[in-house]
Design brief:
seven-stranded parallel β-sheet, 22 strands, alpha/beta, 693 residues, 18% strand
Length: 693
């Protein structure tokens, strides 16, 4: 039986229900986002100290963090600079040596220590003569009934906030675990709301091979018997997080399929056959396989929800064109949304060239080019005016940026939505465009491959198609990482390529110099570059230029009237110039791996060998290791996994933009087996849940 609706789960009680937690302590815990008993139990330690075994002070080594135990033999506060500065010191002794611990400009620290106190100290030596640690973590050892919680065991060390002692929080955690966990060691369901779905989740995840119950996992997380227990506990709790997400995804999809009926967009090939005949190249076997998957969706019972991913230059645009033709053949309109005006213009040029001879209309809607400016089917005629409410017949492809989302802009008879560069749009924006029709089919495309874990979480409600083959006949791309002192040789190499008739991209991170830290900006370097590469013509492209100015620069570069394009990362998509064979990126450490791979994809589009040169002097923060990944591989799938590992999903995607929950225990960079297991368990759970129509 389900509990009464008004009965509050013990885990949902406020922390003030716990012994020893008054208003002041509750306010401190709230600063750590701990408001309920469950929040407390899921407060993850940031590290552990094995207090069964210690290094002696004499065994400490410089620059390596260690925990030692000793007795304070001296302590005192010194003030200087007329009392405006201070240093508080304690001297610790353990029978093997002495250790000085210093706190600069924190005079209140003297309230916490007295001579004779026994203390745990954790930190790195900054000096060896005498042995000295600055601003260590400390904990005074006290005798009493609860001393066993803190000594002679593996002790958790928690994230804290001002005024909240480590020892007090550890004691509270122990008492709370004893109260809420001991009685439910074998009943993981008690750690979830008592409804049928969550009990099923508990039963299935408890049965996951080699993993403990949720109750045991929480106990192991806080007070492990061995350090290896911590990772086992983390995996069990991460599995719960992934199951919860996967259940949400699959229930949402199940509800969608029950409510939505697909529009018949499978097509009849009357446009497809002449299109492929005029295309000028043959589709790869991977493109053909993906198109078969898409055609099955477009003719199926449920609206297509498909993710198309492939490496840079794998031919996703051609697949999108074929997909659009299927819908157009079926008498429906199509919307294609791109993140930038440059990419939208590129699509306009390509799709107009492909579709106009077939009799299909292509119109553009961007911030600077409204549909009211579009008339007829030719690109040039789109500069002329239309009446405010144009007569739009079926078989029209609408290409646009965010402007497609404008209120009042409607797309009649919308059968298919294609979103290019999906990661540049939020989940809400995707849904906003889809709502302009009555359950239209949806195809989303990524600029570069996405990590497999994100494919199962962020895009978990989509079927996935992968173009895992590149077209033939393209030149090889070589990538080099160089320090800034090698730039004279790099510029000489670039002059040689320009003399041979090739074209070059030069990319800087900024539009204008802002912080004076040596990060280059395109507007400042433009004149320098024109002088350096004279008599070659240099064009400038960045996001603050007006739309017409951007179009003029791009047209000049495509026609080789401009030989060198100096730009920001704006060119990472939408630029296809086969004669451009060199990509120089300065301050390359400022870009993510996937972004650099996408920039590199602007070259290697013709038959000539191409060169990507990444300039960086930064050796810290993993920058050198990240850039070396690009030098070692052109495989976008490997690069995507490495980018996730280095940057994490929050930085890679933007938490609000991605719509992903914040995982306490799950690690999207490393937990692929757990995510797959969660997906399978979620399918078993949702199969038994009745569909809500």
């Amino acid at each position: 039986m389900l509990p009464p609706e008004n009965k509050i789960s013990p885990l949902k009680q406020p922390v003030t229900a716990l012994w020893g937690v008054g208003a002041e302590r509750a306010a401190q815990l709230a600063r750590l986002d701990i408001r309920t008993v469950e929040d407390l139990l899921l407060h993850r330690p940031r590290r552990y100290e094995d207090r069964r075994h210690f290094l002696s002070i004499a065994e400490m080594s410089r620059d390596t963090a260690a925990t030692v135990r000793g007795t304070i033999v001296a302590c005192g506060l010194k003030r200087f600079r007329k009392g405006t500065k201070s240093v508080f010191e304690i001297v610790l002794e353990d029978g093997t040596a002495r250790l000085r611990c210093r706190w600069w400009n924190l005079p209140f620290m003297e309230k916490y220590f007295s001579a004779g106190d026994e203390v745990f100290v954790h930190g790195k030596q900054v000096e060896t003569r005498p042995r000295t640690v600055d601003h260590p973590e400390t904990e005074v050892i006290e005798s009493g009934e609860e001393s066993f919680i803190h000594i002679n065991r593996i002790a958790p060390v928690y994230p804290l906030t001002e005024g909240l002692p480590q020892r007090w929080l550890r004691g509270l955690m122990w008492r709370t675990l004893e109260r809420f966990v001991a009685a439910s060691r074998e009943n993981a369901a008690s750690f979830l709301e008592a409804n049928a779905l969550e009990k099923k989740m508990a039963a299935l995840s408890r049965g996951a091979a080699t993993l403990p119950t949720r109750a045991n996992a929480i106990h192991m997380l806080h007070f492990p018997e061995e350090l290896s227990d911590v990772e086992i506990a983390r995996q069990r709790l991460a599995l719960d997080e992934f199951i919860e997400l996967q259940v949400q995804i699959q229930l949402r999809r199940k509800k969608f399929q029950a409510q939505a009926r697909a529009l018949p967009c499978g097509g009849d090939n009357r446009l497809m056959k002449p299109f492929l005949a005029r295309l000028g190249f043959k589709l790869t076997s991977a493109q053909t396989r993906v198109l078969r998957e898409i055609r099955a969706d477009l003719g199926g019972a449920h609206p297509m929800r498909r993710l198309l991913q492939g490496d840079v230059g794998s031919g996703k645009t051609a697949v999108a064109a074929c997909t659009a033709l299927m819908a157009l053949e079926s008498g429906f309109n199509v919307a294609l949304m791109a993140p930038t005006e440059i990419l939208a213009e590129q699509h306009l040029n390509n799709f107009s060239r492909w579709f106009e001879p077939l009799g299909a209309r292509v119109v553009l809607q961007t911030g600077s080019r409204k549909i009211a400016e579009n008339r007829g089917s030719s690109v040039e005629s789109q500069r002329r005016n239309l009446p405010p409410t144009p007569d739009l017949r079926p078989s029209t492809l609408f290409i646009g940026t965010h402007a497609l989302l404008t209120l009042g802009f409607e797309i009649p008879n919308l059968g298919l939505v294609i979103i290019d560069e999906q990661h540049k749009f939020g989940v809400a924006q995707r849904e906003q465009l889809v709502r302009k029709g009555r359950y239209p089919h949806l195809l989303v495309m990524t600029a570069t491959p996405i990590p497999r874990t994100l494919g199962l979480t962020l895009y978990g409600d989509l079927d996935v198609s992968v173009i895992d083959e590149l077209p033939g006949g393209r030149g090889r791309i070589k990538t080099f990482v160089r320090a800034a002192d090698k730039l004279p040789k790099v510029w000489e190499f670039i002059r040689q390529k320009l003399a041979a008739g090739r074209q070059v991209y030069v990319v800087y991170p900024r539009i204008e110099e802002s912080d004076g830290k040596g990060v280059k900006a395109v507007t400042k370097e433009f004149e320098n570059l024109k002088t350096l590469l004279a008599p070659r013509r240099v064009g400038l492209l960045h996001g603050r230029l007006k739309s017409r100015e951007k179009e003029a620069v791009m047209a000049a570069f495509r026609s080789n009237a401009v030989n060198v394009l100096l730009a920001t990362s704006l060119i990472e998509v939408g630029v296809d110039v086969p004669n451009a064979t060199v990509m120089l990126v300065e301050n390359a450490e400022q870009f993510g791996l996937a972004q650099l791979h996408q920039l590199r994809g602007r070259i290697g589009r013709g038959a000539h060998e191409s060169y990507c040169i990444l300039i960086s002097d930064v050796k810290t923060g993993g920058a050198e290791e990240r850039l070396q990944v690009l030098a070692e591989t052109n495989d976008g799938f490997r690069i995507a996994e490495a980018d996730l590992k280095f940057r994490g999903p929050g930085e890679l995607l933007g938490r609000a933009q991605s719509g992903l929950p914040k995982f306490r225990f799950g690690n999207l960079a490393e937990d692929l087996p757990l995510i797959r297991q969660a997906r399978e368990l979620a399918m078993q759970i949702t199969d038994e849940v009745p569909t809500v129509k």
